[in-house]
Amino acid sequence: LSPTMLEVLRRSTSRIIPFNGSDVYVNRLEGEAVEPLFLSYDDCDPNWFGNDKDTTISWLGQQSLDEGDDDREETIKGEPKTDYFAIDIPHSSLDQWSTVLGVDGIESSPVRNYGDSMSSRTHAALLASANGLLSFHRTHQFCSKCGSPT
After folding, report:
1. What is the CB neighbour count within 10 angstroms for residue 66?
2. How far apart are CA 140 and CA 150, in angstroms?
3. How many other C-beta atoms lie within 10 A of the C-beta of residue 32?
4. What does the alpha-carbon distance between residue 101 and residue 120 come to, in Å, rounded to a whole number?
């Protein structure tokens, strides 16, 4: 990881959405609704951010709480912007991470299984974008023009 990306990941306002391939980790809310499992840098396993070629991290964008989500009943103006990231958990860390499943309503499944049960349209769009970017990085490991690793 570049020092700049690591600095942004470590901000208290940054949120990281963990994936395992096309499976995303979510929190089950009351009823059938789910929301992405948003982690801070401190919530994550430090091994996820090493130089492991098995790790893919994608920046999804930046948004403040007062923009973009029509489903939010109240907004907080003046809040710092939140940087959103998706991470494809390295296979070497999956055994340790799998113990989180089933705790406090945390579960995982392919993104498409949660489309109609997301707590907001913004969350659904965020997961769809994250899944697409991570899938692209998993399947396009070399530059199509010069053949060098990406």
Report:
1. 14
2. 8
3. 9
4. 22
Structure tokens at 129: 């974008």
DSSP code per residue over 123-141: HHHHHHHHHHHHHHHHH--
Question: For residue range 60-117, what is the model confidence (pLDDT) as tens digits?
Answer: 998 865 444 444 434 445 567 899 999 998 766 666 666 665 567 888 889 999 988 9
Q: Which residues pair with 27 in a beta bridge?
A: 35, 106
What's the whole-model pTM score?
0.80
> In sequence order, what are the beta bridge partners of 20?
23
At position 131, the amino acid (one-letter code) is N
Q: Tokens at residue 49, please?
A: 């951010």
If you count DSSP H runs as helices and E runs as strands, how many of each does the chain have, helices first?
Answer: 3, 6
